[in-house]
TrEMBL record:
Protein's recorded name: Carbonic anhydrase
The enzyme's E.C. designation: 4.2.1.1
Ribonucleoprotein listed as a keyword: no
InterPro entries named in the record: Alpha_CA_prokaryot-like, CA_dom, CA_dom_sf, Carbonic_anhydrase_a-class, Carbonic_anhydrase_a-class_CS
Keywords noted in UniProt: Lyase, Metal-binding, Zinc
């Protein structure tokens, strides 16, 4: 069996390793054409990361919130207690276009989010089809590895509307060499809170890390990390971090709230499993 990690990395980090081709266009309403499936990530005036609407009070902010549930995210991944296991996730479950378009970039007051134009990038898991909707950032990272927090965490969000469930692929980032694609993405920044800019950039799904032969993937069942903290998320987290230039990380951080991360939540008996591929 071919190594999963090189291909899986290529699906997640295509926008952070290889260049994309696009042009900046006029600003438009950040709420235009947005579905309910990403509503929790786009609220700008109900909750925050600090103060009277900070994480301690999220359970009170809206009816039906699951922020006080027992399967919450993020978590600290204790690598010594994680159990070697077999995932349902396979290479054959990814059905991504060879080239797909980044639709726009949004500053929703909580994070910087890039959305996709196409709904043809699909992850098939447990007989469901999860559509790749967007990716966004947290700085520093929300998940931790043995208590270590990384400078940045990237969430690739897939959604399945019938069950209102998600698959999120998470990637850590640390200081490293300059990313060509990140330079491109930063061309659309700065962006004010509530603003949306059209990107319309075509990106190729290539295999930038074809020489990578080994890697570790962690998995657990959890929730969205923002209100209403819906407990219907399958998390897949890559242990090996992506390298980004310090100035790239700093420029992104400057546009987001300070410490836009939620603290690690109790496991409450949940199992964290892992696979190391070679």
């Amino acid at each position: 069996m071919k190594s999963l990690i090189p291909k899986l990395f290529s699906l997640i980090v295509i926008l952070f390793i290889f260049g994309c081709n696009g042009s900046r266009k006029d600003t438009k309403d950040s709420t235009e054409g947005k579905g309910n499936e990403v509503e929790a990530i786009n609220k700008t005036d109900v909750w925050a990361y600090q103060g009277e609407t900070g994480p301690k009070f999220w359970t009170r902010l809206e009816e039906g919130s699951e922020c006080g549930g027992i399967r919450q995210s993020p978590i600290n991944i204790n690598t010594f207690k994680a159990i070697a296991g077999d995932f349902d996730l396979r290479l054959s479950d990814f059905h991504y276009e060879n080239a797909t378009e980044v639709k726009n970039v949004i500053n929703n007051g909580h994070t910087i989010e890039y959305e996709f134009e196409s709904e043809n990038n699909i992850l098939k898991l447990a007989e469901r089809q999860y559509i790749l909707k967007q990716f966004h950032f947290h700085s520093p990272s929300e998940h931790t590895l043995d208590g270590v927090r990384f400078p940045l965490e990237i969430h690739m969000v897939h959604f399945e509307p019938e069950t209102n469930s998600y698959v999120v692929l998470a990637l850590f980032a640390k200081q490293g060499e300059t990313s060509k694609t990140f330079r491109f993405l930063l061309d659309y920044l700065p962006i004010d809170i509530g603003e949306s800019k059209e990107v319309s950039a075509l990106c190729d799904f290539e295999d930038p890390l074809s020489t990578l032969k080994t890697g570790t993937l962690y998995h657990y069942e959890g929730s969205l990390t923002t209100p209403p903290c819906t407990e219907s998320v399958s998390w897949y987290i890559l242990k090996e971090p992506l390298g980004l230039a310090p100035e790239q990380i700093d420029r992104l951080k400057d546009l987001m709230p300070i410490n836009n991360y939620r603290l690690a939540q109790p496991l409450n008996g949940r199992i964290v499993s892992f696979k190391t591929f070679n």
